[in-house]
Amino acid sequence: LLGLRVDDPSQARAWIRTLADGVDSTRSVDCWRVARSAGAPDPHPRVLLNVAVSHRFLTALGYDLVPLAGWFAVPPWVAGGLAGDTLAQGRPVGWKVGHSPETSVDLLILLGSDDQAALEITGDRLEAEGSGAGMVRVYRETGQLLPGGIEHFGFRDGISQPVPRGLRKAPADPFSPRRLPPDDPRSSELAGPGRPLVWPGQFVFGYATQTEVSDHPGPIAGSTGEGADCPGWLRNGSLLVFRRLSQDVHAFRSFVRSTAPTVETALGRPTSPEWLAASIVGRWPDGTPISLSREAPSPQLASDPDRVNDFDFSTDGAGNLCPRMAHVRKVNPRGRTTDQGAPGNTLALQMLRRGIPFGPLYDVDPGAERGLLFLAWQTSPKHQFGVLQGTWMNREDNPEPGGSGHNLLVGSTRGAPGTGTIEIDGSQAHVSALAPFVSGTGMAILLAPSRSTLRNL
């Protein structure tokens, strides 16, 4: 990730236009994946490119941002802090990017490659070109996949993703692969077991949107149904929320070790640190949902792409095999009625997201900083990212009626350690973190425009 600040909008505009043809489309990424899967060595390693621009920059260029309702202009719900943020006088502190005009990003360049050297060379070139166009670097950081696709707490990440509806140019060619036969009655709603189809207007402007959440009647601003009222420059664009999150692995491991005996006494059942950690996350480290295997991970289940997501909290025993405070349940309460209304309404909150670890593994270098570069694409940060972060993860009483605590892994009350309840077979254990396990250390909300919009800035 390379973040640049614009001091001269006219000069920057001319250079950013030159990036448009290099931005990777869905088609070019598909071609890259096919070539990558062939396994042949590539003498010229590919570096994938995408870019996003700020509210401040677009305003300076004269764009009408009324259709976006100012939802990526650092609105009050961001200024007031999110899960893991430490506040001083009502403002987040400790951020390394985005905490002041001097550290705020106007152009975020996203690069990806299988080749580290090629990645850094491209980053150096673009940084130099940006500097020549009067831009100043305010942020640069490299993340990379960890062994087994885990994040730093040791849990497999990115297993559950929403699946966009839609077709490619051929009518019989769905945008997202379908794993259910056409005659399966579930095929109109699911791409595969546990993989609900979501209208693409939730992620990209100019397309049909999901049913709106019950407490927000009418279309979300910027998500304009079939795109009839969507300004041309917004179509095929998306709003990108970037969060830099630092992870305290030592605090997390110490907590589950020291708290497991207390939970064991309260629940009256054997409780290992590993079981407690899985209860906080909602999955075992290999990805096995505890709703399907409460006592131990199941390699057979975890390795099956159709089974690892094929579960529903509404059929989860009495609804308590997976604690309501668990991370995977807090952010996606599958099949449950929530403060947003009927179970299906939660699909309107889903985002296309990627979590990219940064920093070395804890066991390699315990003293180093580590964490996650969280990226989420959507058409309404206020009603997607904002609800998941502020209304669900950061609240003890949501999303399910009655609640049972924060999202203990990530959530807190404005920087204070989170609390939660584990309920098993009628017994309850109340747990309180000694310190936040995840701290917010940076943020940006930007527009990732279409290539045609970039060409015509």
Report what the structure shows:
The chain is of the alpha+beta class. The protein is built from 11 helices and 15 strands. The chain has helices spanning 9-19, 26-38, 55-60, 76-79, 116-132, 249-267, 273-281, 299-302, 327-331, 385-393, 451-455, and strands at 2-6, 48-53, 86-88, 91-93, 107-112, 135-140, 163-164, 190-192, 195-198, 238-247, 352-358, 371-378, 419-424, 427-432, 438-448. The strands form 5 sheets. A 4-stranded antiparallel sheet has the order 2-5-1-6. A hairpin with a 2-residue loop joins strand 8 (190-192) and strand 9 (195-198). Helix 6 (249-267) crosses helix 7 (273-281). The longest helix is centred in the middle third of the chain and has 19 residues, at 249-267. The two termini are 22 Å apart. Residues 212-228 have low confidence and may be disordered.
Tell me the Rg in angstroms. 22 Å
Major sheet size, sense and barrel closure: 4 strands, antiparallel
Strand and helix order = EHHEHHEEEHEEEEEHHHHEEHEEEH
- DSSP helix count? 11
Tell me the number of strands. 15
Q: Major sheet: order of its strands?
A: 2-5-1-6
Q: What would the principal axes of the Cα set say about the shape?
A: globular
Terminal CA distance = 22 Å
Q: How much of the residues is beta strand, in percent? A: 15-25%
- Summarize model confidence as the mean pLDDT: 86
- What share of residues is helical? 10-25%
The structure class reads alpha+beta
Unreliable spans are: 212-228
